[in-house]
Amino acid sequence: MKTVLCVAALVETSPQAVPLGAACIVSALKSTSFFNDTLNFSLLDFSIEDFQKKGKTLSESARSVSEKIISENKDLFAVCFSIYVWNRTLLETVCALLKKNFPGLICIAGGPEVTANPASFTEFDYAVSGWGEKTVPLLLRSLYEKENILITDSLFTKIPGVYAPLKNDGNRNEDARLLGLNGHPATLLPLPRSAVLDLQEISSPWLDGTLNPQKYGGVLWELARGCPFKCSYCYESKGEQKIQYFPLERLEKELRLFSSYKVPQVFVLDPTYNASKKRALEMLSLIKTIAPDTFFYFEARAEFIDRELAAAFASVNCSLQFGLQSADASVLKNVNRSFDKKVFEKNIGFLNKSGAVFGFDLIYGLPGDTLQGFCASLDFALSLYPNNLELFCLSVLPGTDLYETAQSLGLTWMACPPYHVVESTSFSAKDLAAAKKLSEAEDIFYNSGRAVPWFLSVLKPLRQKPSTFLREFAQYLETHSVQTCCSSQKARELQLCFVRNKYASRNLNRLVSVAEDLIVLNGALGEATATGTESVVQLHYHPDDLMSGYAADLDFFAKNAGKFANRTKVFVSKNGPDWKILGH
User: Fold this and answer.
1) CA distance 225 to 20
2) What is the 3-state secondary structure (H, E, C) of 368-388?
């Protein structure tokens, strides 16, 4: 029996890197009765990061993947590739190698990058735009039965949402040449997508065994599809605005499966988890009952947060991520987003009061934004005590509304993945480079260094804005040739050195021991929470005093708290991270 292989190239090796898209196609194929005695289906996934760690070039990586496909699958009928912005170039190269050695092998491309511009995938026999759960089985059945689905000299086929960028002789289709990405076309002809399905018709790759919940250290979980918003830089700007929810019966079964496998973390894929308050509360209650020990990650909208939702999130083992993107309403208007700063602050306040864990995303390079404006957004974001702050360069993704208006908005961007903005009329290339360095510095100091409990307190005596402090830290990293990726332990060492230098330069030596203790003790507690690591730290002050509200004001604390040199053990108890003084 011949085999159809679905291939997924994951951007990294992490609990968040799970080949869910490709697995959904395998699951759909397995549930199609026609294929019961005709074709086998399997999933191959690999990590691009693993190749990079081995020092392999893109061509070497592609050769390794193509050789693996050939050696492990002797009787291939077709190969389906799940293509995203981060793996397009690699998988195009893999496809070219396969076609060179096996010209008759059918190669099919699908995924968000393909949906954006199917005509540009000229290495492939077929490109599937939109949802593939119904279209791919229909395409493979037609090919298996040798049905002619091509339309002479046309990119289109007889199957809606399926395109043929190659002619039968292997040459490019004329339509594909016209529509393919070769630089930036003035307009990108919108091509019809596959039909949107009723989610009750879609089988679960978790429940049918296509994906093993234990394999990746975490799972990606779809609760719904569609987004009510049309942020112009997002693929969802061209997607379904109507939200469809997966049946609760299916979700409960999946949740029980995750719990039975003791999955440590679940990443919920809904772009706006709390679009429906009723549904959000219902799912949180289900999670609390069935999987109380699993950690969940949600993407949510701050404007939909209220006291009840904040309390519900706080009662569950979870973290929320909010796409702030910018704190400037006029900038956000350019990408079809609205923003009310007062409402945002008020609703985030509900989360802080409830004790819920949350983080923000910011984008630099947005149309109309400047380096100064981006720094102001960073200052605003950090003033609200997020647990993490993720900073990204704007990508002008093909197939989005922004792609069609980017030139008129003054943006210049990369023609190939990752499609980053390289300059704009308001954000020069030099300023974008500065924003990139600032984002790297923030990631080390604030995120890797787990600085949220003490960051603003340590900055207060310096009388500096977070953006100014972090820009100086970026210069410090450059001067000392520090790599942009580092462990939490290395980040803590950098924090201590930089803060000591900063305090010394401002004649604040009297506060150094307080700042050091806050960094060291909170760092140990953060490490214990994240990894369960036990440690012993040397402190100048009593840990109970350091963890009190008085330590928020370093000057007041230094004047009023008595020194208490001690060795303290930090560990994880059944009630969470804790400490015990060993001696003083």
Assistant:
1) 14
2) CCCHHHHHHHHHHHHCCCCCE
Distance CA 253, CA 257 (A): 6
How far CA 434 is from CA of 262, 346, 485, 558, in Å, comes to 43, 31, 17, 36
Which residues, including other chains, have CB under 8 Å from residue 33's CB and lie 6 or more apart?
A: none
Place of tokens 């509900």: 350
- How far apart CA 503 and CA 461 sit, in angstroms, is 8
Whose CA is closest to 371, among 315, 331, 416? 331
Residue-wise pLDDT tens digits, 556-569: 999 999 999 999 99
Q: What is the Cα–Cα distance from 474 to 464, expressed in whole angstroms?
A: 15
| Sheet containing strand 265-268, strands side by side | 219-221, 265-268, 295-300, 318-325, 357-364, 388-393
% helix, strand, coil for the chain, step of 5: 45, 20, 35
CB atoms near residue 537 (< 10 Å): 18
pLDDT tens-digit profile of 361-396?
999 999 999 999 999 999 999 999 999 999 999 999
According to CATH, where is 3.40.50.2300 located in the chain?
2-179
Q: Which residue carries 């219902």 as its tokens?
A: 282
d(CA 433, CA 385): 26
* pTM score, whole prediction: 0.92
91 phi and psi, to 5 degrees? -70, -30
Exposed/middle/buried for residue 462 (C-beta within 10 Å: 0-12, 13-18, 19+): middle
The secondary structure of 20-84 as a DSSP string is HHHHHHHHHHHT-GGGGGTEEEEEEEEEHHHHHHTT--HHHHHHHHHHHHHHH-TTEEEEEEE--
What's the fold here for domain 2-179?
Rossmann fold (3.40.50)
Q: Is 444 helix (H, G, I), strand (E, B) or coil?
A: helix
pLDDT band at 194 (very low <50, low <70, confident <90, very high): confident
Domain ranges in the chain with CATH number 3.80.30.20 = 212-394
Q: Which helix (H) or strand (E) holds 268?
A: strand 265-268
| Interaxial angle between packed helices 277-290 and 307-314, expressed in degrees from 0 to 180 and rounded to the nearest 10 | 20
* Helix and strand totals (H; E) in the chain: 21, 19
Distance between CA atoms of residues 107 and 78, nearest Å: 6
- The topology (CATH level 3) of 212-394 is pyruvate-formate lyase- activating enzyme (3.80.30)
C-alpha span between 298 and 318 (Å, rounded): 8
The CA distances from residue 239 to 136, 230, 234, 247, in Å, are 19, 9, 9, 21
